[in-house]
Amino acid sequence: MFRKLTLIILGLLLVIFAIFFATATDNTQNNGIVSPLVNNAKKLIPYRFSKNKSATNRSQKVPILLYHYIREVDKTTDPTGWNLSVSPENFALQLSYLKSQNYQTLSFEDIDYLIENKQNFPTKPIILTFDDGYDDFYTNAFPIIKTNNFLATVFMIGGKIDQSNYLSADQIKILNNYGIEFGLHTQTHINMTNASDSNIKKELTENSNILQSITGKYSNILAYPSGQFDQELIDLLYKTDIKYGLTTVEQTADFSIHNLLILPRLRVRGSTTLEKFKELLNNQDGYLIVPTTTTNIN
Ligand SMILES: [Zn+2]
User: What separation in Å is there between the alpha carbon of 5 and the centre of ligand 1?
Assistant: First the structure.
């Protein structure tokens, strides 16, 4: 009898501890921002939302899709490249499906605005993200995104701008004028889990400065190169202006629950058929992500 009671009390204590720690982590995120980055850009208010300050209790679950290349690749000669690529044909089918289901694409600037103004998220929100900043985003993905009147976020490797196979500064300008959002992916695609603090800050500052010099906008979003992150990195980022950290952990993001520096994404692969794509959108698995070192291709 006493043993049972002790167990129950211990269990209750554990739950209380868990809640306490979850809350403590959230507080760290909102306080004590010391920025190694330069923040000159004015905060922009998205034009898509009216200024209605009603409180919200609508779901803040948002599938964040992860793409790399939008191109045709031969599966037999380059299986890795093939799985990192979605064909323009499949990409068009996927976006048509999203359109037919009344999905509304959001940028992280939109998310910021909705959270800060306590506004309802759209009924069917979705975020399209593209890692690395390949030039096929401009030639293949952008026309399809535009046709559907959608938005997207590109995580650009700073040092690759104007290099072969990557977006040029001129292309970034055109995309930026349309409303495509640009985020950080470090200057040289470093493994952020084994770099020194000073190197991480240098990589982020350079990446941020070059993007801001082209777009005129300051970016506080970061996709971890190769999806690599750990607790030490997250602790370092708490002390910067970086507000949203994108992983390659595969879950639907929930902005009301997930640590904003450890947001999961749903990877769309070369092998993702339209049926699998529909299943991805219904992936409601998991509420907790434990910070851990992870390794993934690109
Ligand atoms: Zn990458």
Answer: 51
